[in-house]
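re the bet — no i am not wrong, look at it urself. input seq straight from the record:
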Amino acid sequence: MVDLNADLGESYGRWTLGDDDAMLPLITSANIACGFHAGDPATLRNTCRAAVDAGVVIGAQVSYPDLGGFGRRFMDISPDDLTAAVIYQIGALDGLARSVGGRVAYVKPHGALYNAVVDHERQAQALVDAVLAYDKDLPVLGLPGSLLLELAAAAGMRAVTEYFVDRNYTPDGRLVDRRQPDALLTDQNQAVARAIQAAADGRADSFCTHGDTPGAVELAAAVRTGLLAHGVTIAPFAGSLP
């Protein structure tokens, strides 16, 4: 059994990114932006409403305060500031989600923060501290073998592993830097084959396709169809009711 997740709610005002309405029927968990890397309040509330209507679990995709850089630039932020920023984001999205009948059911870091907490101890601990302070029962989604998941598990939290079907990996299991030409994988057949193998290997609890990747909807649909055809059960790893 695996969960399928995607990054949603990343439009801002009149600027649109991705096709959230088309992606929602294909996934079981939505990593919804929290306004720090993308998403204005109305967009985020509407995205939460659409996720609730579709029966998709809502996760808070927390980021550095980097709206101009889409959260993809590392920030040398103090642990106290990062903890406060993450609590702020979870609380804001949770309030919007609850206003439309849902709730935040897990937390996932975005972009540069996701990569930093693989081995940046102070920032990984700051993120764990934020989730503990807000709701210790919220699972944390991250890269297998990351310091973030190690610290989360040590704190008694649920650490959920993630595999990206549309990103390439380095030999040591990290994501290839987005600035490299081979960072993204857009070939549907290759993505499907990788997803099926990863599911057979039990490589991760949740599989991600990025909403802003070219052909994202078609790729997600192909991955879902391929997994189901090989007997994989697709279901969320976290509950969604308030």
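see?? The beta strands are 3-8, 29-33, 57-62, 104-109, 140-142, 159-164, 206-209. told u. also The first helix runs from residue 20 to 23. so pay up
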